[in-house]
């Protein structure tokens, strides 16, 4: 199976082929998305909200990003693995940014890193790229700046804000970014920026004019029935499915319908694998 590389992503833009990106935080989802053909698995600091239950991405640490990156990398046979640089891991100094990026590659399974911010971070991008770590940029609604922005609100509205985003995108490209995420900006502006750049743009809440799209996988799968932002399309309703499965299990346990003889072991051991993959779930679990 051929790995998706950064040159291949560039060729996709050049020939007008859209790039599909999903967030992933563990090996199980990584394997499923990889087998489905997703081009980039983004280990997003969104895990702070969807995995850890925080109200923002700000509490996520570099160690946590490396931990989840390693898990995703184990499940990504084909997809490119990009890992977010979390808040505080690159803003303090260029040196710290380079060290953080190198750690995510060396310890976190990253094949590239993503950072938020425009022209002021161009020198940071240049330094990380010089250290042989590819960088994906992120403009528009940048969740690590949620307090500065006044919340999760659409960016780039109005002539001055749009002009600044255009300049930021060109600065990040010149600094060496291989792609840029455009989040929550007017679709007309996103399409204009996309046309002005040689490198791919990945949209989220930025319309169909971008070179690719990214969604938080938990949103795509409908894991939170109460979360319905305009930019998300649900492709499943797993919150309902999982809830029903748990309730069914609860009822079977309470009424002694689970486990049955089919789920129990006998005193005559005969080695047998639990699954075709040969995965083991603990000592002695591979036999009847």
Strand order of the largest sheet: 1-2-3-4-5-6-7-8
What fraction of residues sit in β-strands?
A: 5-15%
User: What CATH first level of the largest domain would be assigned?
Assistant: Alpha Beta
Biggest β-sheet strands, sense, barrel: 8 strands, parallel, barrel
| Portion of residues within helices | 25-40%
**Average of per-residue pLDDT values:** 93
- Class per helix and strand makeup: alpha/beta
Classify the fold: give the CATH topology of the largest domain.
TIM Barrel
String of helices and strands:
HEHEHHEHEHEHHEHEEHH
| Assigned CATH architecture of the largest domain | Alpha-Beta Barrel
- Which radius of gyration do the C-alpha atoms yield? 21 Å
Structural shape = globular
Residue runs with pLDDT of under 50 for 5 or more positions? 280-285
The structural domain count equals 2
């Amino acid at each position: 199976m051929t790995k998706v590389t950064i040159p291949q992503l560039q060729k996709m833009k050049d020939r007008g082929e859209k790039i599909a990106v999903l967030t992933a935080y563990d090996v199980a989802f990584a394997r499923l998305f990889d087998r489905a053909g997703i081009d980039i698995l983004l280990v997003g600091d969104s895990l702070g909200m969807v995995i850890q239950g925080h109200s923002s991405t700000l509490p996520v640490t570099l160690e946590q990003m490396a931990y989840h990156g390693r898990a995703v990398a184990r499940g990504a046979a084909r997809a490119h693995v990009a890992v977010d640089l979390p808040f505080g891991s690159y803003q303090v100094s260029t040196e710290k940014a380079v060290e953080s990026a190198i750690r995510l590659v060396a310890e976190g399974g990253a094949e590239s890193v993503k950072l938020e911010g425009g022209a002021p971070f161009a020198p940071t991008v240049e330094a990380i790229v010089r250290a042989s770590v590819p960088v994906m940029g992120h403009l528009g609604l940048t969740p690590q700046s949620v307090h500065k922005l006044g919340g999760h609100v659409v960016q780039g509205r109005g002539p001055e804000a749009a002009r600044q985003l255009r300049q930021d995108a060109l600065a990040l490209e010149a600094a060496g970014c291989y792609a840029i995420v455009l989040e929550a900006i007017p679709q007309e502006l996103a399409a204009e920026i996309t046309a002005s750049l040689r490198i791919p743009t990945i949209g989220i809440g930025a319309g169909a004019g971008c070179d690719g799209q990214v969604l938080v996988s938990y949103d795509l799968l409908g894991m939170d029935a109460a979360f319905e932002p305009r930019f998300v399309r649900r492709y499943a309703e797993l919150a309902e499915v999982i809830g029903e499965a748990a309730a069914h299990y609860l009822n079977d346990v309470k009424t002694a319908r689970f486990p049955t003889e089919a789920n129990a072991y006998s005193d005559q051991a005969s080695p047998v694998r639990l699954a075709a993959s040969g995965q083991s779930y603990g000592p002695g679990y591979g036999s009847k």
